[in-house]
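Following up on my earlier message about protoporphyrin IX containing FE. Here are the inputs again, as you asked, copied directly from the submission form:
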Amino acid sequence: ATDPPTVFHWLPIIGSAIQYGNDPLNFFFECQKKYGDVFTFILLGRRVTVALGPKGNNFILGGKSTVFNAEDAYTHLTTPIFGKDVVYDVPNDVFMEQKRFVKVGLSTDNLRAYVGMIEDEIEEFLKHDPSFRTYQMNDINEWGTFDVVKVMQEITILTASRTLQGKEVREGLNKSFAEYYNDLDNGFTPINFLFPNLPLPSYRRRDAAHVKMSNFYVDIIKKRRAGHDDHEHDMIAALMQQKYRNGRLLNDKEIAHIMIAILMAGQHTSSATGSWALLHLAANPKVAEALYQEQVKYFTGPDGKMRPLTHEELRTLPILDSVIRETLRMHPPIHSIMRYVRDDVPVPATLSAPSKDGIYIVPKGNYVLASPAVSQSDPTVWKDAEKWDPYRWNDSEGVAAQAFKMYLDENGEKIDYGFGAVSKGTESPYQPFGAGKHRCIGEQFAYLQLGTLISTVVRSMEMRIDRVPDHNYHTMITMPKAPRDISYRRRHF
Ligand code: HEM
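Thanks, got it. Here's what our run produced:
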């Protein structure tokens, strides 16, 4: 057994950091051509073994936490931000209990209550934010522009805090909370991942912001414990009731730190996805019009006015659902999922190239990296992979039959993932929310937030843009490069 092939590089320590950092997907596709699906590259002294394709995703994301470990890979990035005793600062089984607690706060009952609040926040935003001055003028012939990323970041934090985070955080957004948030966020970058601690102002501000943010939540919890305020639908309320298997309740710090983790987990992922969705709709007015007609069809009341959405209905709108799915196919916010290798792990070389015999050993001390983004944009899997085509998900003959070309296994046999299985198992070419034990638990909330956002915007305005910007990979979460101004005009008033 041998090590997987190492990607050729000129500079010893730096390795492939530049190519990977500038355009990871292009780098992976190029390496795949030369080395197959499994290869190792050097990233500033670290050895990172990549396993591509559905089988590669399965190998890494389906791995046991005792060999492919998430906390060893992430803790130096996340613990200074989230704080102690939660997520990657605790052993995996403790974090798994914490994930279960968070799920309670994301119950269907809670989600149902959120739709109206989200809609309300967005409408208020359109009415008052300076980005939408033209909209506020009530003139349907006047075009204006807005920076979609800026707007989406604001709307995402407003809607998340109104719902999950609770009313105290929503109120704090107009005050100091927003400032702590920005300082924390500036500590959540690829540089922080590569260099856990540098004597730089941004690191000091991150650490100071964590303390203030944590105290902010602890204060809320203390006040709630003292009073009789009724907050039954938010996450703090849910967490205050959760007990570990040994019967211990979560303490105030743990709740505060989990709240920070949720804030960070949902903010850029959702706001990036919302930005990409609006950009594609602006570039594809026909799809936007079909989406608008879908809203008209489902929601026009007897009085001719459009009524509010409900949680149940959101999931049954075929075009809306496809728009979100397709956006996440082309622009999954997380391009690299990492684990630290705690023990030597064999991997069949056939995973890499069908003709190769034997096994590779991924050595202890390496990192492994899964990139569902690669299989999600692989032209051998998807017809017209580079085209944003939400209708591929509505194909009456099923995704597998037409739009979604079936994946071939090593013997050239077709693997039928079927429509329903597309995002379920660990071996799938479509995994924007990851897979296995670290899979996302925010998917339902994200769909709700994004579905409500897109519906509300499409009901309110028409949008145009000449072309959708390229990916910017220099941020932790894949964002559209500037300029990203969308032209819009109001539909009605
Ligand atoms: C995990 C994507 C929104 C909370 C993940 C993972 C991915 C992902 C790929 C797996 C990470 C890994 O295996 O290392 C997304 C996308 C979102 C989104 C695309 C929106 C479009 C959210 C939201 C929340 C959230 C809104 C909170 C309400 C979490 C949590 C985990 C997770 C708690 C588990 C981390 C672990 O087990 O290690 N997400 N996420 N996510 N996400 Fe999300």
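One observation from looking it over: The radius of gyration is 23 Å. Hope that helps, and feel free to reply on this thread.
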